[in-house]
Amino acid sequence: MKNFITLADCTTKELWGLIDLAVHLKFEWKSGGNRPVMNGKVLAMVFEKPSLRTRVSFEVAMLQLGGHAIRIGPDEIGLGKRESIADAARVLSVYSQGIMARVFDHSYIEELADWAGIPVINGLSDTHHPCQAMGDMLTIYEHYGHLERLKVAYIGDGNNMAASLALAAAHFGMHFTIASPEGYQLPASAFEEAAPVAERNGGKLEAFTDPAEAAANANIIYTDTWVSMGQEEETEARLKVMQPYQVNDALLQHANKYAIVMHCLPAHRGQEITDEVADGPQSVIFPQAENRLHMQKAILVELMA
């Protein structure tokens, strides 16, 4: 594994390796141990979009591993504007041992990887969110003890999170369903990318417009914000059309009685999810957020250590 750009670039064996490594690193940290395998190493973190979990989890991950992380904001680098992406990638390659970038345009991540002489990690782009999806798989694995044959139902906007979750589910032999309103479905290209992966691993992919149908007997109910960064002008229209896709007590009645509820955060309570569900006994939202740290550590160790 040279970079971590999308889950389509990884083999299923590599992703299982990340799960195993994350479990080990989490146990080691919780037991009071910590190996400084990143001693003297620097992660350059490029941000076009603001972040809480991505920034803090990567910074803390590097700290716990004995390394250091540097945040570079949009005013400081201006990818493709202040200077070319190729030049930025080559400069960062001589100052640091890895680049994590959180960008609007996925092509920026790909161009960084093309020109960098060091590993590049996709912290989020407009089409993929692989670090989050792998943190989610870790959370599900911890809860159920396995991933194969579980059903994960994604309810809401067919966005970058949904695309990466579909790929992750395909790799681990899960049944992935998604329910979105007309005009907001997961792009056909995302299904085409995940379908052969699912076929190889015994997974299944299905799309619905009826949230109850997608959630039927699901082991995991997953949702995300209805309005992503950069879509603020669409807020009024999105809130209106998405209302039937709220994850609430009524929707949970269609899932398995022991189903867990997940959200990648930040949550807009009262919109895509209710307080009762987000804070209820079936919610694993905050263990899910914690696992971003442990999966991030696994990715960093795999690529940089």
Q: In what order do the strands lie side by side in the largest sheet? A: 7-6-5-8-9
Principal-axes geometry comes out as globular
Q: Give the C-alpha Rg.
A: 19 Å
Overall pLDDT: 96
Percent in strands: 5-15%
Order of helices and strands: HEHEHHEHEHEHEHEHEHHEHH
Give the name of the CATH architecture of the largest domain: 3-Layer(aba) Sandwich
- Name of the CATH first level of the largest domain: Alpha Beta
In total, the number of strands is 9
The largest sheet is: 5 strands, parallel
CATH superfamily of the largest domain: Aspartate/ornithine carbamoyltransferase
Give the count of helical stretches.
13
In the CATH hierarchy, the third-tier topology of the largest domain is known as Rossmann fold
Keywords:
single chain; 305 residues; alpha/beta; Rossmann fold; 5-stranded parallel sheet; 4-stranded parallel sheet; 13 helices; 9 strands
What do you see in this structure?
The chain is of the alpha/beta class and 305 residues long. It folds into two domains: 7-129 and 291-304, Aspartate/ornithine carbamoyltransferase (Rossmann fold, 3-Layer(aba) Sandwich), CATH 3.40.50.1370; 132-288, Aspartate/ornithine carbamoyltransferase (Rossmann fold). Helices cover 45% and strands 14% of the residues. The protein is built from 13 helices and nine strands. The strands form two sheets. Strands 7-6-5-8-9 form a five-stranded parallel β-sheet. Strands 2-1-3-4 form a four-stranded parallel β-sheet, with helices on both faces. β5, α7 and β6 form a beta-alpha-beta unit. α2 (53-64) packs across α13, α6 packs across α7 (160-171) and α7 packs parallel to α8. The protein is globular.
